Amino acid sequence: MSVHSRRLSAVLFTLVVCHAGACMAAEEPDAAGTPEAAAEPSAHEKSARKRHGKTSPKHAAQAHRAHKHTPAKTRKKKWTPVATPEDPYGDEAEMKVYDPFEKFNRGVFALNAVLYKYVTKPLAKFTEFVLPAPVLTAANRVIDNVESPIRITSSLLQGKGHRAAQETGKLLVNSTIGIGGIWKPSDRIESLAKVPSEDIGQAFGVWGIPSGPYLVLPALGPNSARDLLGRAGDSLLSPTTWVGSTKFRNYSRAGKAVVENPDRMKTYDAATEDALDKYIALREAYTSYRNAAVDR
Amino acid sequence: MHRIFRPVAVPALVLAAQTSLLAASAASESPEVALNRGLAELLSKAEGRDNKDPVELAKRVRPTLEKFFNFESLTQKAMGAGWREFSPDQKTKSVRLFSEMIIRSYTTRFDPSSRVDIQFAKASDLAPGKKEVPATARYQGKAVSVAYRVETSAGGWLVYDVIVEGVSLAGNYRAQFESIRQKGGPEAVIRSMEQKLN
């Protein structure tokens, strides 16, 4: 990782840590963690009001101290969606995404839209024009194969030994019979065919680390604070980070970005083309997808 | 775009289309069996045609979708708790516009010459009268996990949501509609759909 990348990671890590507390509240909103609940008086304050008819400064301070020192576990309630006559599908509603930097994120989203339109989409079209579809598919397979250590390690970190074994099996089969991953004979082996993909961000999710604030980064697109740290972990585990000379590694990363670009642009289009609010559509799609990935 | 965010590019129309014939005999049939049977009917109308005009495709598949897909429930779920703010006229209009949006958006992306292969798994109970049928869809060389959410109605089992790789069709629109409704009420929601369709 370059010096600039390390600095950026440090800055972003600081941002993430500062908001970790708020993130926890957002992941599992409770009576005290949400802005709405900030207006809701604590139990102590309510009974104080009942006894005295109003809240004196002394009792308000007592209520605040009582709430502050209440253990987190007894304060936090897991958010449970509930169906009501007015909202019969409320029991399936997704938890609201924690997006405290929405203004900033929308600005970056708009910038990215311009970047995608004038740079990355034309590049994607050019890539598809120059590289025939089978070649592009094979290149994506090779990248997927090379990044097996990420999935193996992530599976182990989540205690998914069987999945780690499956990924190892895939790596062996595709590297040998598949000649380095150009072909994917593992897809024809039933036990290796449908292995869900894992990454460090998912491992963090399984460990119980909340996703944190939603972030839109220049060129990189949607992320969560947790996934951003996960990406750093993925990068460290990827052989393209530590195999070969600096020049080779840089060319590998550039080649990877070019090969993966067409699919990324298709993802972006799929998530936003039919949206009424493209920013929200992508935010919700990304968050839902990642939550489902953690649960797999 | 982070490569871990896999494309959700499989047309939900095709996936939702597997709901055809659910209503026909849902009383005696499990949802997954009916979905399997319905797949043949709808794909026979959609696949293998040289004419890729999405307008013509929408005309061919619309009657089947309207019969077996609960657009009213889908719209209500997409609007969320704000649905109660809509007048009866606004509700009728919203259902019509939203169903048109959904059908149009996916017929423009569906390639009738491509083959779709869907394998259904056993349904699980979500709530009284609601089930979820998981499936794996293979389309244009990609495999994606899909779940159909179905509910009982007078016509039998009807689909009210489709979830592709964890992304709910209704849930995704719910967040968008809520944002629009909070700023401008039900009329703003209706206007936004009209603008999208025009």
Defining traits:
heterodimer; A: 296 residues; mainly alpha; two-stranded antiparallel ribbon; 16 helices; 2 strands; B: 198 residues; alpha+beta; Nuclear Transport Factor 2, Chain: A; 6 helices; 6 strands; globular
What does this protein look like?
The complex is a heterodimer of chains A (296) and B (198). Chain A has 16 helices and two strands. With 296 residues, chain A is an all-alpha fold. By secondary structure, chain B is α+β, with helices and mostly antiparallel strands. Chain B has one domain (12-197): Nuclear Transport Factor 2, Chain: A (Roll), CATH 3.10.450. Chain B is built from six helices and six strands. In chain B, strands 1, 2, 3, 4, 5 and 6 form a six-stranded antiparallel sheet that branches. The longest helix of chain B is centred in the last third of the chain and has 29 residues, at 169-197. The radius of gyration of chain B is 17 Å and the shape is globular.
Gap between N and C termini of chain B, in Å?
30 Å
Name of the top-level CATH class of chain B: Alpha Beta
Low-pLDDT runs of chain A: 1-55, 70-76
Low-confidence stretches of chain B: 7-26
- Strand residues, percent of chain B: 15-25%
Biggest protein-protein interface?
A-B, 51 and 43 residues
Provide the CATH topology of chain B.
Answer: Nuclear Transport Factor 2, Chain: A
The biggest beta sheet of chain A, please? 2 strands, antiparallel
The number of helical segments of chain B is 6
Note the quaternary state here.
heterodimer
> Sheet bearing the most strands of chain B, described?
6 strands, antiparallel
Computed structural class of chain B? alpha+beta
**Could you give the order of strands across the largest sheet of chain A?**
1-2
Q: What is the residue-mean pLDDT of chain B, rounded to a whole number?
A: 80
Q: Which structural category fits the helices and strands of chain A?
A: mainly alpha
> What's the pLDDT, averaged over the residues of chain A?
79
Helix content of chain B: 40-55%
